[in-house]
Amino acid sequence: MSQRPKVSLIVITRDEAELIGQCLGSARSFCDELVVVDSGSTDQTVAIAESLGACVYQQPFTDYVRQKQEALDRATGEWVLLLDADEQATWDLGREILATIHRSDAAPGYRIQRVLYHLRHYFIRPIYRDLPVRLFRRELGHIGGVDPHDKVVVDGRVGRLKSPILHFSYRDVADHVATINRFSTRGAAQVAPSPFAAIQMFTHPLWRFLNLYIIRGGFLEGGRGLYAAMTAAFYVFLKYAKIYERRVQSIRPR
Known about the structure:
By secondary structure, this protein is an alpha/beta fold. It has two domains: 7-167, Alpha-Beta Complex (Spore Coat Polysaccharide Biosynthesis Protein SpsA, Chain A), CATH 3.90.550.10; 173-250, no CATH class. Helices cover 40% and strands 22% of the residues. The chain has helices at 20-27, 45-51, 64-74, 91-101, 173-189, 197-215, 223-250, and strands at residues 7-13, 33-38, 55-58, 79-82, 87-89, 109-111, 114-117, 122-123, 133-137, 141-146, 149-154, 158-160, 165-167. The strands form three sheets. Strands 3-2-1-4-9-6-12 form a seven-stranded mixed beta sheet, sandwiched between helices. β2, α2 (45-51) and β3 (55-58) form a beta-alpha-beta unit. The mean pLDDT is 93.
């Protein structure tokens, strides 16, 4: 019997002591290597990761794309699974990954659904249509995208796995709002100010709300669906408000 391909897990961290243990623990049974790139944690993140057998490397944080590429560069497995520190692989996903990488016709990369857990609820409806590429052949993939929205770019066909990743992103509403503020700042920094920024502050959030709440069926989730659509629209509003702010600041007074 041929030896199965080696699988490396890659994760980036900074002060993730609350969740990193569950993240790494969820993948230990099917990943042969745990690679953590940390950007100066001041809590027990590094100690917890090392206690679970992870190789931890220190790298000052620049942006999400380059930080995750640094983690990928440290991996040695034929296959790589990318998780965020607030995510967990399900038991079924581990079994599916092992079965998939043994196949002779395995694709270079695979999309895996992320199921968000928030407000004591798993959002399984397509309101969060989140199917990023997370499993891929190391030599055929790299980290691309635009900060803060990194993505795995694969050279070749991309398939889809059935089992999900669980995403425990926010402790509470206040934590969610703080994340929105942080990510909207990074997102706005990637966009050049437009003369239409003021209009975009209205049209883009409105479309995001209608898309999530009506088209994707957020209204079927009750209050939680309304919350999800409203906060998604709020993120877009803040992003374009910050773009508009930069435009206003760049206009010289007459």
